[in-house]
Amino acid sequence: MSQVKFAIPKGSLEEATFQLLEKAWTTVNRKSRTYRVYLDDPKIIVKMLRPQEIPTLVSEGLYDVGITGKDWVAETKADVKPILDLEYGKIRLVIAFPDKHAYKNIDEMIADYAKKKKILRISSEYLTTAVKFLKQSKSYKKYHGNKEPLVVTPWVRLGSNKLVQIHLSFGATEAKPPEDVDAIMDVTETGTTLKQNKLKIVDEVMTSTAHLIANKNSLDDPTKREKIFDILTLMRGAVHGRKYLHIYLNVEEGNLKKLLSQMPSLKKPTISPLSEDGWYGVNTVIKKDEFHKLIPKLRKVAQGLVVHEPRQILELEEIKRDEES
User: Fold this and answer.
1) Using CA atoms, how far apart are residues 100 and 119, in angstroms rounded to an integer?
2) Roughly how many angstroms between the first and final C-alpha of the chain, as a whole number?
3) How far apart are alpha carbons 269 and 247 in whole angstroms?
């Protein structure tokens, strides 16, 4: 089987990514001041990169799989296959401008600036996404037609509409208004930083989480496909493991039927007779959000409750069906 190259994100997604990797594999090693990561599988070659770069590198085939935000897949227009939502790194990509403005949204701001022949400047790291979002605005279509907003970077200027400009931001985007730009398109988790800088959110462009993505040609390669599905199986198991608890408890035979009628489970629970006659051990997996509801019931009919958070829950038959489809 050939080796599979796996790109993982450095930066804001880094810590959560390693937490998931450590649940998915038994050994995860990284040396300080290097970008190489070693799993307990020599067929998987792992390197840390900026999440902004990963979609393009996977699309071009330099890496077979990668972890990056859904927002960067959209921004780069990368031709990749998202194969798993990893359910962390959740952010909102929003439009915000100074709260002193009376505009309800960016559409109203575009219209007012166009009527006054004022240049509207927007700062963002997401140039492609900003262009697409602005061009979909009713006011933009009305006053600027199909003209491309002027994209301004230190190296190049693209687009013909000088009245609506998108300026590349290298970070601290929330600090740009009102002196440098009129509005921003930026990511936020809670909106707190924007409020602290006297900005108000007026439009939501998209929500994003970290995703496992794959190169389409690699998925068509029979040998690489096998290893990619190994990675998918382990990571999906780790994602699912976070949502469940593994519980084990003892119950008298007279209470067994009542217990089973009240207990939710991922599959049918395992029931084993104990060394003492009339007692059974019940072993099952339940959803975390159901645990607190279950405790009052268990206290009345069971003893010796043991609770574990599983590293992984591997739905092997589901993965197999996915692979054959």
Assistant:
1) 18
2) 21
3) 10
In this structure, which CATH number among 1.20.1440.230, 3.30.70.120, 3.30.450.20, 3.30.40.230 belongs to the domain 244-308? 3.30.70.120
Closest CA to 313 of 239, 233, 241: 241
Show Cβ contacts of residue 42 under 8 Å, excluding neighbours closer than 6 positions: 3
* One fold for 4-88+210-241 and 244-308: no
Higher pLDDT, 296 or 98: 98
pTM beyond 0.70: the answer is yes
Which pLDDT value is given to residue 47? 96
The CATH superfamily assigned to 4-88+210-241 is: Periplasmic binding protein-like II (3.40.190.10)
Which residues lie closer than 8 Å to 71 by C-beta, 6 or more apart?
Answer: 91, 93, 126, 129, 187, 206, 208
**CA–CA dist 206, 219 (Å, integer):** 28
